[in-house]
Write a structure and sequence with these properties.
Blueprint (H helix, E strand, L loop, with lengths): L3 H4 L7 H26 L1 H52 L1 H39 L2 H12 L2 H26 L1
């Protein structure tokens, strides 16, 4: 008895081997059909992509909050060190230096307020841009940040304030 599979070089040597080949082929076809079904499941893939985007947005939110908190603490530490340095120099130099430091403090405070408003305006514009052009899961996170902007604004204002104080201290040190 000649079988057609034998002509191709893959023929079975008996009925048991033929059954095994048929079972193997069925398994391979089943796997292929499952893969094709998975690729054809657009709704399921969209759900998986949306879940992935939600996870990424959540992770990004956590990372941004952590970075903002770190920046706030860092800026607060720098501002505290700079303030102590200015206080020590002012007490040694006397009343004149104390008056100048007071005027510089008001100037820094005004600049910090202006910078805070500028940062807030830019952040709002950037938030709106992201809100209208980002995927829906990202927009949801951005909208939550817009509803509760205080922590983000406080961290930004602290960073700007610290930067201005350090800059003022450096300028004052260079004039002597």
């Amino acid at each position: 008895m000649t079988d057609m599979a034998g002509d191709a070089g893959t023929g079975a040597k008996g009925p048991d081997e033929l059954r095994r080949q048929i079972q193997r082929t069925r398994k391979e076809l089943g796997i292929t059909v499952e893969e094709l079904a998975g690729k054809a499941d657009v709704k399921g893939r969209a759900r998986a992509r949306a879940a992935d985007l939600r996870d990424r947005a959540g992770a990004m939110t956590v990372q941004l909050r952590s970075s903002a908190a770190q920046a706030g603490h860092h800026a607060q530490d720098k501002a505290t060190r700079a303030r102590h340095l200015v206080q020590d120099r002012a007490s040694r130099a006397g009343h004149t230096v104390q008056g100048r430091a007071s005027r510089a403090g008001h100037s820094v405070q005004g600049r910090a307020g202006w910078a805070g408003h500028t940062v807030q305006e830019r952040a709002t514009r950037a938030g709106h841009a992201v809100e209208y052009h980002a995927p829906r899961p990202v927009r949801t996170v951005v909208q939550a940040g817009l509803r509760h902007p205080r922590p983000v604004l406080l961290a930004g204002a602290a960073a700007v304030g610290a930067m201005l104080v350090v800059q003022a201290v450096r300028r004052r040190g260079g004039r002597r």
